[in-house]
Design goal:
mainly alpha
Amino acid sequence: MEIFLVAIAAAAVGLVFALLLALNILRQDKGSETVQFIGRAIQEGAMAFLSREYRLLAIFVVVIFALLAALIDYDLLGRIGESRTIPSTAIAYLGGAIGSGLAGFIGMSIAIRANSRTVVKAQQGLNAALRVAFNSGAVMGVSVVSIGLLGMTAVYWIFRDVNIVAGFGFGASSIALFARVGGGIYTKAADVGADLVGKVEAGIPEDDPRNPATVADNVGDNVGDVAGMGADLFESYVGSIIATIALAATGAAFLKLDDGAASFDAALFTLPVLVAAIGIFASILGTFLVRTKEGASMGRLLWTLRTGIFGAGALILIGSGIAIYALGLPFALFWVILVGLVAGQIIGTASEVYTSYEFGFTKGIAAQSETGPATVIISGIGLGMISTLIPGVVIVVAMWLTNELAGTYGVALAAVGMLSTLGITLATDAYGPVADNAGGIAEQAHLGPEVRERTDALDSLGNTTAATGKGFAIGSAVLTALALMAAYSQATGVDVFDLNDVNVLMGLLVGSIMPFLFAALTMQAVGRAANAMISEVRRQFREIKGLIEGDAPADYARAVDISTQGAMREMVLPGVLAVAAPIAVGAILGPEALAGLLIGAIATGFLLAIMMANAGGAWDNAKKYVEAGHHGGKGSEQHSAAVVGDTVGDPFKDTSGPALNILIKLMSIVALVFAPLFL
């Protein structure tokens, strides 16, 4: 019982710390009237989108709540054996959905206020701008883990049933998927439209106020890369903890160690909760280690952020070792957590190497701009494919080591270890969109070139750290999904896969198709929404007299509305498909076929997500490398070729790729929650 009190206390401390950081950011200078005007336009657009998105999601939540109450809690089909007196799973689902939405809302609320303040600090120096942008990311990072731990702990403490807690994870995953897809479609439609018409066709700078898509692009950074990402990593975080508890509940079938207790607060149940609580304190302390100097290189900036992450990781290891000893558990579990942390860091570092223009891979893509956009795209796709090697091998080795140390429970606990530093790793990810917005505001407000140079340095670093964050999320998603699948096999009794059973093979193929189908739907959605944006920007350039000369204002509101409508319309089908597919396969083909679906989806989804995230990040930074003065610099044909590669990579890295890790976990947890219906 004391462990849950520690977890609640850690979450409370985290929320207080996030509040203090937010208040400190809000006290900073908001800048000139022009800077404030642009900032307000971005705020209004972002909040309008989120309001419309959440109203639409509320309908989905009500429908799923009713289905869970009827089919799982009240047992209307008579398959479970004993109905509950209250809709416990449905209530847990509602809590997870609200928590996921709240995490995204808090992150975006501070980001849209920090961007103008970052511009002001960028006029003073690089470190001052980094501190404001990073602190805004830390608000979201610490809020996500605090809300996640508080909500999950409260549900588990109240209901004391891991099957009900799985409903909390279902709520978090379903909302995260819609938020990622909807926000990703919005931001990339605006980004692609702004780049292709503004930079390539009209030859005007990025974020130029003459471009009608500029404000929509800045809004998109917040609704996709902040709100969507916050909801995404919220569900990753709680999913890893829930998967570990679910495996502890299965007993000896998946454990090579047993603490000999079956109560809800037994040591194996509470260890992942305690590790997560330690992670909150460690992440808070790690934020104080992030400092840099004026004129720092990309390599120096990367090490600035790594210092905070490595410091937090060391503190977590010390705290976890003490916790394992205090709980009387085998010390092998310490090595499991270490493996998770190291595996996550290797995957993240590999993403840095593949996507940062400090290294040869991205420079090689930039060099391909000398021969046109086709070779840029070919080399980027090739890099994305080969970049799956290191993460794939690392995950295999991590699974082998953790399984040897602690069975499948160890595999799940490794995911908890990998995400235990999320409070600070998410901060290094979430600050990137703030820096990107700051650069846009600097351009639109016609500030000095040194300001844009500093914000561009932080933005480029943000692209690399974003790829790192996605690597962490995808790696943990695989471990979590595998653990959830193991829990599903126990719930259904499917512990042996008969390869002579055609239903299993059909499920395997359907599961393998799902990530590709999902990626195709989201990519095409971005294409359609971007097409509408491109047509609108061209229309305004053509019909608004004096716009291209800078003598007349653009109609920003129309561009914002086009992106919003496109995102609302296009996000529904992929989200519903992700929930419906596992239920349909389980109901029609049976639990064995659904197990096959999960295996296929995890394998192909993992590799496709890594490929898309790294290819997109490399294309983006290759463009920035050219814009820094290499291979002809801005305005050259090589620059146009690099911009084309970047626009292809935008939906890769910010829409389809990151949503895939949610897809594989969502289908796994849907299978676990609805498992009683397939028996």
